[in-house]
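Closing statement on the zinc ion sub-project.
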Amino acid sequence: MTLRTTSNLKCECGHEGTLSSAENDQPYSIPWVRHDLNGFSGTIADWQLDRLRCPSCGQEGRVEYVEEP
Ligand SMILES: [Zn+2]
């Protein structure tokens, strides 16, 4: 089974994006996570956002997860 989640991201400047993840949660198989980034450039490692670059303001590491209402 594959677990899919989507998180909303927002930069300090107000630029928004999303991070979609597909995660293999099947026991006794090789675990894997695939991230699909929209709105920002950079790489995601261990769910850390500090390497993301905002295309709007050009800053790096200003992106945070947006809490669901
Ligand atoms: Zn920004």
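Strands lie at 2-11, 16-24, 33-38, 63-66. With this model delivered, the sub-project is considered complete and its resources will be redirected to Aim 3.
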